[in-house]
Design goal:
The complex is a heterodimer of chains A (about 300) and B (about 230).
Chain A lengths: L1 H31 L6 H17 L5 H24 L7 H22 L5 E2 L9 E4 L2 E4 H23 L1 H9 L3 H6 L4 H27 L1 E2 L5 H14 L4 H21 L8 H15 L17
Antiparallel strand pairs in A: 1-4, 2-3
Chain B lengths: L1 E10 L2 E11 L4 E5 L6 H9 L6 E6 L2 E2 L5 H6 L2 E4 L11 H8 L6 H14 L1 H5 L10 H13 L5 E5 L7 H16 L3 E6 L2 H5 L4 E6 L2 E6 L1 H6 L1 H7 L3
Parallel strand pairs in B: 3-8, 3-9, 6-7, 7-8
Antiparallel strand pairs in B: 1-2, 1-4, 4-5, 9-10
Helix pairs in contact in B: 3-6
Classes of the chains: A mainly alpha (about 300), B alpha/beta (about 230).
């Protein structure tokens, strides 16, 4: 029982983390058609900001969390302003290559300016404790990951459904030109989408630092690949799909880890992708994706 | 209100609009007619700034807006209901109307305007919380025009409001357009459906292959049968 509960919590926590990062990718993709592979470096900037602040004497974990989220949001806005805005109207492949470029440049900056080796960061270790709930031992970090991700997604849903800027982001995901005809500034809509994407990455960064206790130049990259897969499962561009896809990916991974005999554990990733490929054969548009709606725009 | 001088729009080597001159006076309803591909929509897109003209000057209320961004032209009081309606299909009817008022900072006035359009088009009221993509074509056109009016524009550009709609609905839409004119709104209506457009027009421009062919009152256009048939047809 204890083991089953532990694995369930594992799946939920991994799933929540994938969902956060996948949502960040999906928010930007839905309005710009840009797969931002530099999203991992936004997580990186966030993590290294905490590392530097701690090295400079910051001791409050609370401030470190705020710093992580703020740094990630600012990094995302800066990436957009410097790298993506000049190629906004270029073909999508240009945006994709730009994203890889940003990713490589920023990773190398971490290596050159700080170190290629992992650096220890202990300021957030306090988040990772064992809690005893009745007879069960659970990780406080995983519980928090689940709750915070849930609240974040709730806040995002409220923002997208209630605020004018949120409505504009949803509208822009289908028809950007007409959003501009409403007098809404395109730059503001895009900057807001990047800021949201960055803030989500910052929250994910907090959990990564707390779990690993260290930062390294490539810390976000593999996570973004997972998030990309989550987006594909859920249907690229669909926000609900990204969240659902992330959760499903968490469950598939942990499920395989539990189901596979120890000596076949190495096949976990391979089998994960087999399951995803099988899923996409039956639903090429993803779980919640929509076939491209042409409607009556052009007659 | 609006004056366009020597407007040229090009897509690569193709000229869509050649040296177009056009004026719309305050409170006027001006019709811009012409066959498919005449450059009417290109003219509208140049006016809203969604297309950058190769040359020419666009002056709105004495202010040169030729180099002003789309968003700021809307804020300056010009708005457009695009061809094909372009309602936000994934948003509800209410959310579409709210976005139309995105530039306004008077929530009470916005609420009042929304109520006004819901009273005017009861079907929008019935479908207020529904995704706008589920509306019929005519209902979408009513929503699209209402959404444009939510910004309280000085000048409304209507691009092919009759497109793809049944004759009865088209008549209803044009009745509403006539109503807007009586209320004092300035309108520039682009149409292929000349009969409807001429019902309330003060003046008419006819374009074909990007060039102006006729300019004047609608009565004379109707008299000159040759021109009417050549460029517009029945």
């Amino acid at each position: 029982m204890d083991y089953a509960l532990q694995q369930l919590l594992n799946a939920l926590a991994f799933g929540a983390e994938y969902s956060l990062v996948a949502l960040g990718l999906a928010v930007v993709f839905s309005i710009m058609g840009l797969v931002n592979f530099a999203h991992g470096e936004i997580i990186g900037v966030s993590a290294y900001s905490v590392f530097l602040a701690a090295a400079l004497g910051l001791t409050s974990p609370f401030v470190a969390v705020l710093l992580a989220v703020a740094a990630a949001a600012l990094a995302a806005i800066a990436f957009e302003r410097v790298a993506f805005r000049p190629v906004r109207y270029a073909p999508t492949t240009t945006g994709l290559l730009t994203a890889f470029g940003v990713s490589i440049v920023v990773q190398n900056l971490f290596m050159l300016l700080i170190s290629p080796k992992p650096q220890s960061v202990s300021i957030l270790n306090g988040l990772n404790q064992m809690w005893f709930v009745g007879p069960f031992a659970v990780s406080s970090l995983q519980v928090m990951e689940l709750i915070v991700s849930g609240l974040t997604i709730l806040a995002l849903v409220l923002f997208l459904n209630r605020s004018t800027l949120g409505l504009a982001i949803r509208a822009a995901s289908r028809d950007f030109a007409t959003v501009r005809l409403m007098g809404i500034r395109a730059n503001r809509v895009i900057a807001t989408a990047f800021a949201i994407s960055g803030a989500l990455a910052g929250i994910a960064a907090v959990f990564i630092i707390a779990r690993r206790g260290s930062v390294s130049p490539d810390l976000g990259f593999s996570l973004v690949l997972k998030a990309f897969v989550a987006c594909v499962i859920g249907g690229f561009g669909s926000l609900a799909g990204a969240a659902a896809g992330g959760m499903l990916l968490g469950f598939i991974e942990v499920g395989l880890l539990v189901a596979l005999p120890q000596e076949y554990g190495g096949f976990k990733d391979a089998l994960t992708y087999v399951i995803i490929v099988a899923l996409l054969v039956y639903r090429p548009e993803g779980l919640l994706g929509q076939r491209v709606e042409l409607g009556d725009k052009e007659i | 209100m609006l004056s366009v001088d020597n407007l040229v729009v090009r897509y690569g080597a193709v000229s869509a609009v050649r040296d177009l001159n056009l004026k719309v006076g305050r409170g006027e309803l001006v019709a811009l007619l012409g066959p498919n591909g005449a450059g009417k929509s290109s003219t509208i897109n140049a006016l809203t700034g969604l297309v950058t003209p190769a040359s020419g000057r666009i002056v709105l209320d004495g202010q040169d807006i030729s180099r002003v961004r789309t968003e700021d032209r809307i804020r300056a009081g010009l708005t457009s209901t695009p061809e094909g309606r372009h309602i936000f299909a994934n948003l509800t009817v209410g959310e579409n109307l709210r976005l139309g008022a995105a530039t306004r900072r008077d929530p009470k006035g916005v609420r009042g305007d929304i109520d006004r359009f819901l009273a005017l088009f009861p079907v929008l009221s019935e479908r207020y919380g529904q995704a706008a993509g589920t509306l019929s074509g005519g209902e979408q056109q009513m929503l699209a025009i209402s959404r444009s009016l939510m910004s309280r524009p000085k000048l409304l550009l209507l691009d092919e409001p009759s497109l793809g709609l049944a004759p009865k609905i088209v008549e209803r839409i044009f009745d509403f357009i006539g109503e807007l004119k009586r209320e004092g709104l300035t309108l520039l209506v682009v149409e292929q459906n000349a009969r409807q457009a001429l019902r309330f027009a003060d003046r008419v421009y006819v374009v074909s292959t990007g060039t102006l062919r006729y300019e004047g009152p609608p009565a004379e256009l109707a008299d000159e049968h040759g021109l009417f048939n050549l460029y517009i047809g029945g």
